[in-house]
Amino acid sequence: MHLLIAETEHARYAELLRQAAPELELHGSDDPAELAHWAGSCPVWLGEPDRLAEVLRLGHKPQWLQSTWAGITPLLAADLPQDYRLTRAVGIFGQVMAEYVLGHLLAHERQLFARAVAQTEQRWDNRLPHSLSGRRALIVGTGEIGLSVAQFLAPFGLELTGVASQARSLAPFAEVVGLADLPRVAAEADYLINLLPDTPGTRDIYDAALFAQLKPSALFINAGRGVAVVDAALVNALELGQLAGAVIDVCRQEPLPTGHPFWSAPRLLLTGHSSAPTQPRLMAQLFLDNLARYRSGTELQGLVNFARGY
């Protein structure tokens, strides 16, 4: 079987896959022209959605495409085909995303950035920090990644609430409410953590009305998708002191253009879409597990419903 690998780290993927599945004929590159050259002879594609969207636009199409990202937005464009099997990366981002969230919660409570500034000013800062225990964390998006984050945070004694498409019971959340209840539960949160995918129903939900509901001491973290946030509303809320700070990993336009208000907004930290990088070793194993399913005709992990967008 011929496999197309469209990845910046295509050589690393080839090394991992060659060890485990030497029968595969591997064709890897990060160059669209080279990928297009091989695409017609490869029934299975593995790689980054933005690179593979370019190959699809050139008239090629796989039988099965395994994304190396959890998000597959570039492949959902209206001008691209949808009559093939598409799987997104699942089961490999929970730990690293949880580490990202925990790191920023601790930095916020320990006031690490303020203390760094105080040191550069040679100013003694002896304000006492707060513990995570007893804080209320609202995780918006309780799928595989959101659940992993909640399980990771639970031992620290946080009160965990979730937001999903519909209310449900799901440990370790004390409560999971529907998206319509987001304003109500956001008003009670010390940490508002967005992990939602990009769907028509999750765009622009963090608007001026929602930010006005938050505690002035609340921290907002967006590690889901940039289109969920109304940029101007967030900047205005920070300027008005409607929340204590924001950690923004994902933006509507990436890289963030020069002059965008996020660069200079008060108490806003940009982390450059680095919250949950794909680890080739884990991704290769997921692909091999799905390859076995593909060959046996069983259901693939992370199979995308094009109508839903995930």
UniProtKB/TrEMBL annotation:
Signal peptide: none annotated. SUPFAM superfamilies: NAD(P)-binding Rossmann-fold domains. One of its GO terms (molecular function) is oxidoreductase activity. It comes from the Bacteria. Residues 103-274 form the D-isomer specific 2-hydroxyacid dehydrogenase NAD-binding domain. InterPro entries: D-isomer_DH_NAD-bd, NAD(P)-bd_dom_sf. Keywords: NAD, Oxidoreductase. It holds the Pfam family 2-Hacid_dh_C. This is 2-hydroxyacid dehydrogenase. It comes from Pseudomonas taeanensis MS-3. The lineage of its organism: Bacteria, Pseudomonadati, Pseudomonadota, Gammaproteobacteria, Pseudomonadales.
